[in-house]
Amino acid sequence: MSSEKITKNITTTPPAKDAPALVKKIGRTTYIVRIHFSKTSKETMSDKIKRMLKNEIQQM
Q1: Is the dihedral of CA 45, 51, 53, 47 positive or negative?
Q2: How far is CA 47 from the centre of its chain?
Q3: I need a surface site. Which of 10, 38, 50, 58 has the fewest CB within 10 A?
Q4: Contact, 7 vs 31, CB < 8 A?
Q5: Average pLDDT of every residue of the chain
Q6: Nearest-5° angle of CA 48, CA 54, CA 59?
Q7: Is the distance from CB of 30 to CB of 23 less than 8 angstroms?
Q8: Is the separation of the CB atoms in 36 and 20 below 8 Å?
Q9: pTM of the full structure
Q10: Helix residue ranges per DSSP H, the chain
Q11: Distances in Å between the alpha carbon of 46 and those of 10, 31, 43, 50, 60?
Q12: What is the DSSP letter of 7?
């Protein structure tokens, strides 16, 4: 495996200043994940998780 450093910049809508962030460091890489929820969504978080689990099971 080579020792090349790969950097990817993914830009989307800038997060709100008060948006929560999860920070996880794995090795020498730090991952910052910001969370946002749509104000117009009609699907609850529980509904979304159930949908994702059903989709995952169907792929097995």
Answers
A1: positive
A2: 17
A3: 10
A4: no
A5: 79
A6: 130
A7: yes
A8: no
A9: 0.41
A10: 45-58
A11: 28, 25, 8, 6, 22
A12: -
- As a whole number of Å, the CA-based R_g of the chain is 17
Confidence of residue 15 (pLDDT cuts 50, 70, 90): low
5, amino acid identity? K
Strand partners, 25: 30
Question: What pLDDT does residue 17 have?
Answer: 65
What's the pLDDT at 38?
A: 82
User: Cα–Cα distance between 28 and 6 in angstroms, integer?
Assistant: 13
pLDDT at 11 over 60: no
Q: Do 30 and 24 form a contact (C-beta atoms < 8 A)?
A: yes
Count the helices and strands in the chain (H runs, E runs).
Answer: 1, 2
- Rounded distance between C-alpha atoms, residue 15 and residue 25, angstroms: 20
